[in-house]
Design goal:
Elements (H helix, E strand, L loop, with lengths): L3 E6 L5 H10 L4 E3 H7 L6 H10 L12 H9 L2 H25 L8 E4 L14 E6 L2 H12 L3 H9 L4 H5 L4 E4 L4 H24 L1
Helix pairs in contact: 3-5, 6-7
């Protein structure tokens, strides 16, 4: 079985940027965000269960999931968020497992699985290694304001609602600091990649 490396991090830390750099190195990347969209496409059991749980107000005019409306609905309601995760996580997990199975013949030394909640759900333990992307809180705030058009207060609320980055980095095998210097980030990813290749090569020959 080909090793699967988990990639996670805090909000607005730049996980996607880091995943893209791994992709440039020839590593297949499975993006849980994309899987999360696919499992709630119109006509899927996932969307039917969400509508059954939260009502038709979470649909847009075309009958597709209004992700922002749903996010606003569950953001401050822990029970609603748990219900949503209970629907989505098994579906995303099954879709991810299928992608991993399909990539077993890839010549790459490992597969990267990018997801936001690997530490929160405890699922990071299932991976061969965990890479956590971190950034300074001021950088996170600036990115949320620029990218998502949050006010600074909204950005701070969203950051505070997340599991602290220190708890994620505490269980990481590797930490990539992504404070905005792309060359520095790329250099860190290359170092992590080389260490992963070396580790899996040694494990494979043991």
């Amino acid at each position: 079985m080909k090793p699967v490396v988990g990639l996670t991090g805090g909000i607005a830390c730049g996980k996607t940027t880091v995943a893209r750099i791994f992709g440039d190195l020839g590593i297949p990347v499975i993006d849980a965000d994309i899987l999360a969209r696919q499992v709630v496409e119109p006509g899927t059991p996932g969307l039917a269960r969400i509508v059954e749980t939260f009502g038709e107000e979470v649909l847009d005019a075309e009958g597709r999931l209004d992700r922002k409306r749903l996010a606003d609905l569950v953001f401050e309601d822990e029970q609603a968020r748990a219900s949503l995760n209970g629907i989505l996580h098994p579906l995303i997990g099954a879709a991810g497992a299928q992608h991993i199975a399909n990539l077993q013949d890839s010549p790459a030394p490992y597969i990267l699985y990018e997801a936001a909640l690997l530490v929160e759900t405890g699922s990071y333990r299932a991976f061969s290694a965990l890479v956590v992307v971190s950034a300074d809180e001021t950088v996170q705030r600036a990115r949320l304001v620029e990218r998502d058009h949050f006010t600074e207060e909204e950005a701070d609320t969203r950051i505070a609602s997340q599991l602290p980055l220190t708890e994620k980095t505490a269980v990481a095998d590797f930490v990539v600091v992504n404070d905005g210097d792309l060359a520095a980030t790329r250099s860190q990813v290359l170092t992590v990649h080389e260490k992963l290749v070396s580790r899996f090569s040694q494990e494979g020959s043991a």
